[in-house]
Amino acid sequence: EDTDSTTSSTSRNVGILGVESAYMEGGRVYNEYRLADADSIAGVVFNDGGAPSSGANTGTPNDGVQNGAEAGVGGLTVNLTNCAGTTYASTTTDGNGAYGLSIPTAQIGQAVCVQPVLAANTLATGANSAGTVLANGSATTVGGVGYTYTRASQQASFTAPASGTVTLNFGQVPASTLSPTTSSQQTQPGGRAIHPHTFTAGTGGTLKLQLGTATATPSTVTGWSEMVYLDANCTGKLDLTAQQLAPAAATLTVVQGQQVCVLVHELVPATAAEGNSNTVPVTATLTFTNAAPSLSASYTAIGYKGVVQYDDVNRQVNLVAVPRISGVVFNDGGAPAGSSNTGTPNDGRQNGAEAGLAAITVNLGNCAGVTYASTATDASGAYALSVPAAQLGQDICVQPVLPPGLLPTGANAAGAPLVDGATVSVGGVAYGYGRADQRVRFTAAASGDGTLNFGQVPVSTFTPAVSAQQARPGMRALHPHTFTAGTGGTLKLQLGAATALPNTVTGWSEAAYLDANCTGSLDLSAPPLTAATSLTVVQGQQLCFLVHEQVPATAPEGSSNAVPVTATLAFTNATPSLSASYTVTDTTSVSNSALQLTKEVRNVTQGGSFGINNQAKSGEVLEYRITYKNTAPSPLTTLVINDATPTYTTFVQATTDTTPPSLTACTKVTPANVAPAPVVGCDVAQTAGGTGAIGWTFTGTLNGGGTGAVLFQVKVD
User: Fold this and answer.
1) Virtual CA dihedral for 339, 344, 345, 349, nearest 10 degrees?
2) Where are the beta strands (DSSP E) in 67-110?
3) Which residue from 26, 209, 504, 540 has the highest number of Cβ atoms inside 10 Å of its Cβ?
4) Where do runs of H (alpha helix) occur along 495-630?
5) What are φ and ψ of residue 535, in 5° steps?
6) Which residues of 488-512 are buried (b: 16+ CB within 10 A; e: fewer)?
7) Residue 519: which of 620, 625, 655 has the closest Cα?
8) CA atoms within 13 A on the CB side of 687
9) In the 8-state DSSP scheme, what is residue 243?
10) 10-43 burial, b for 16+ CB within 10 Å, e for fewer?
C-alpha cells in the first residue's frame, strides 16, 4: 500500500503491476496493488542437426523437435513483439539454449509473436509447442492455443492466453559451406586441370553436385568438358575408380559436420590456344532430411578455369600425366566434288576435303577392357587423351568406338599409314593396328606426345531389301533397286542361285541391267550387268538397277521364283584389300491378272522428277504416281486402285493424271472423306490433313493395252 512519508506500513506484494482497490483508513486514502498472475513463455532454441556420433545420428535432424543429443544454442536473443515491430520483452538463451519471457497484462487476449533472432550463417528448420510440431505457414492448435509459424523468419504468432505457460521451442542448424568459392588452374592444350573443393554439411541430408553453363573465352573455342568426382580420401588427386557425381546426378547422404571432398575435372580442347579459358559454376545442393515441408540450401562456387599455357614451368595442378595422344577421326571417303574425288578414299589418311567426324568416342585403355581415359571428338573430329603416369612404359591401346553405320578404312601415326595385322615403327614407337576393331596398341613413351588418326566411312545401302512383283505366264517382271555408295570404289552386281516354287517349274531366267536415269523402266539400250561388270563409284553416288525376270510360259498360277541379288563394293586404295557386300531378294509370282501397276515418286518441293525412290526433309511435299496398264488383249471393267499415306507423312491431295477415254467416270476416298462420308469425284479439291487409305474407282472399261495414271501428294512430318 502507499502512504505518505509520516505513516508506517507493511508492504503486501512484491512488484506492483496493477491497481486492485482504493480505501480510506484514519482519514487517509490508500491505493492497494497486487502482483498480477501474468502469462509466461518458456522454451529452448536448439541445434536441430541430428547430433551425429561416429557418422550416425543420435537424434532426428531437421524435424523441429529436440531429441537425441541435440544441444541447446546459447547466447541467442529471443523477442516478444506485437508482430508489427514493437518489442514487449527480450531475453537471451542460457548455456542450454533455454529462455523465458513474461507477457504484459495489457497484451492478454491480444496477438503476440515470439521470435528468436537467427545468427549469421544459421538456418531455421522448424518449431514445436510442448513437443507438437508447428506447421509452416498454417495454424496448429496446442493446449487450446492456436499458433501460426513461419519457418523462414522463425516467428510464431498466437493470442496470449489469460493464464498458463506457453512453451515454444525452435530448431536451427548452421549453414553448410563449399570452399574455396573460386579456383583457377592452368594446363596445356589437350590436358586436364583438377579443382579440389570441400563441402561441410550444416545438417543431415542428401547432397547433389551440379555443373552450370560454362563460359568459354573466346566463345569460338569449343570442346571444353567438365565432370565432378568424389574424392573419398580428400587427397586432391583423381583416382581412376572415383565415383562421378556430375553430370551423373548422383546423390550422397551426409550427417551434420561431415566433410565431402570433390574434384572438378576440366578437359581442355586440343585446339585451345594460349590464354584461352573456361569458367564453370558448380552448385552443391543439400536437401534437408525429415524437413516438412521440404527444405534445401544451395551453395555455388564460381570460376573454375582451365587456362591454357605453353611455358616450360607447366603449372599443371594434379595432372596425372603430361604425355598425351591426340589426332583426328575423319570421313575417309575421298570427299568427292561432283563425280571426282578431292582426296584419296580409303587410304587411312585425311586428305583433300575429307572432313572430321564429330562426337566419336575415343578410349585409352590397357588393351584388356580397362579404360584409363575417354573423350569425344569435337566438331572437326579432333580428340586428345592424357596418358596416366602409372602407364608410362606400359602397353596401352587407343581405340575409337565405331558407331552404327560406319566402317573403318585405316589409320596413321603422324601421317605414316599403319598396316592391318602388322607392326609399324614411327618416331621410335612400334604401333600394332587391327583394322576390324580400329585399335592401335603400343608402349607409352615416358615423354613426348603421340598422334593417331583414324579413317571411317558410312555403310553403303542397297534398297529395297525385298522386292515382290507379279507377272502372267510368258511375261516379264521388273525389280528396281538403288545402290548408294558409302565410299569410293568399284561395284559389282551378282545374281545368286534362284529358288523356284514349286521346283518342278523350270524355264525361269533373270538378268540385271543398269537403269542409268533411274526411271524404273527397262530401256532397250540399257547395258546388261554380268558378274564381271565393274562400275566405278564415288562416295554418295546413287546407281539404279533393274532385275528382269522372265516367267516361263508354262508357269501355273501361284508359282514363284526368288533370286538373291548381291552388290559388292571393293574399296579403292584400301590396304590390304577391303570390300563390303549387300544382298536383296527379288521374288516374282505368277498371276493371270492382266492389270500391271507401277509406282513412282518425286519431290515437289525441290522440283524433282519421278523415279523409283526419292528423299525429302521434314515439311517437304512428295508426289506419288501410280501408272496402270492392261497387259491383256481383252478389256478390264471396274478398275479399283488402292494405296495409303506412307508412315511419317500427312495427306495433301489426290487426283488423276492421264485417263483413257474408255474409263468414263472416277470417284475417290481419302483421309479427307473417310467412311461413312460419301465418295467424291476424283477432280474435287479436298482439305489437307490426316493419314490412311487412298482409293480411286473407275467406271467404264480399260481396253487391252490401255494405260493411265493417278496421283497423290503427302507432306513429310
Assistant:
1) -150
2) 77-81, 87-92, 98-102
3) 209
4) none
5) -120, 130
6) bbebbbbbeebebeeeebeebebeb
7) 625
8) 5
9) P
10) eeeeeebeeeeeeeeeeeeeeeebeebebbebeb
Q: Are 256 and 173 in contact (CB under 8 A)?
A: yes
By DSSP bridging, strand 296-308 and strand 183-187 are: parallel
pLDDT in tens, 198-226: 999 999 999 998 888 888 888 898 888 88
| CA dihedral sign of residues 417, 421, 422, 426 | positive
Helix (H, G, I), strand (E, B) or coil at 389: helix
Check: CB of residue 69 under 8 Å from CB of residue 43: no
Handedness of CA 545, 551, 552, 553 (dihedral sign): negative
Residue type, 109: G
What contacts 255, CB < 8 A, 6 or more positions away?
Answer: 49, 50, 52, 55, 56, 57, 61, 201, 204
Point out which residues pair with 285 in neighbouring strands.
Answer: 208, 298
**CA–CA dist 539, 355 (Å, integer):** 13
Cβ atoms of 512 and 544 closer than 8 Å? no
Element (H, E) at 129: strand 122-129
| Grid cell digits, residue 479 | 525389280
| Residue 480: other Cβ atoms inside 10 A | 25
Instruction: Tell me if 575 sits within 8 A of 345, measured CB to CB.
Output: no
Overall residue count recorded for the chain in this entry? 717
The predicted-structure confidence for 297-322, as pLDDT tens digits, reads as follows: 787 765 444 444 333 222 233 333 34
397, 441 in Cβ contact below 8 A?
A: yes
CB contact set of 65 (below 8 Å; sequence gap of 6+): 48, 126, 128, 131, 133, 169, 171
Q: Can you tell me the distance from the alpha carbon of 205 to that of 126, in angstroms, rounded to the nearest whole number?
A: 15
- Give the integer Cα–Cα distance in Å for 167 and 700: 99
Assign 47 to helix, strand or coil.
strand
Q: What is the dihedral of CA 384, 405, 577, 434, to 10 degrees?
A: 40
C-alpha 715/C-alpha 671 separation (Å) is 13
**Residue 648 — very low, low, confident or very high, per pLDDT cuts 50/70/90?**
very high
Number of H helices and E strands in the chain, helices first, is: 0, 60
Distances in Å between the alpha carbon of 447 and those of 386, 387, 392, 425?
A: 12, 10, 8, 17
Which residues, 6 or more positions from 299, have their beta carbon under 8 angstroms from its beta carbon?
Answer: 176, 177, 178, 199, 283, 284, 285, 286
Q: How far is CA 466 from the centre of its chain?
A: 35
